[in-house]
Amino acid sequence: MRDETELVEYLARRLVEHQDQVAVDEVDEDGTLVIRLRVAPDDLGRVIGRGGRIARALRTVVRAAGVHGDRRVTLEIVE
Predict the structure, then answer these.
(1) Residue 79 CB contacts under 8 Å (≥ 6 apart), including other chains
(2) pTM of the model
């Protein structure tokens, strides 16, 4: 697991109530690392936040972490 993926998992587990249902996958699509985050349906609102603020912040952190490794990284929150 890459550093960015571990970072997403760490942050997501701190945000949700059902930590055991946090799942993070990584896929390489055309040179871009796509990190897919799955959480319990009850915790989806906690990860997205009001108006998408938390999701936007998570994506910003992940993108910044990817710059360190000279690769493009995106975050998808999957229902």
Answers:
(1) 38, 41, 44
(2) 0.90
∠ CA 14-17-7, rounded to 5° = 25
At residue 33, the 3 state secondary structure works out as strand
Tokens of 18: 């059902």
Measured N-to-C along each axis, helices 53-68 and 3-15 cross at an angle, to the nearest 10 degrees, of: 160
Length of the chain: 79
**Pair 73, 2: CB distance under 8 Å:** no
Q: pLDDT by residue (tens digit) across 3-44?
A: 889 999 999 999 999 999 999 999 999 889 999 999 999 999
* Sign of the four-CA dihedral 12, 55, 1, 39: positive
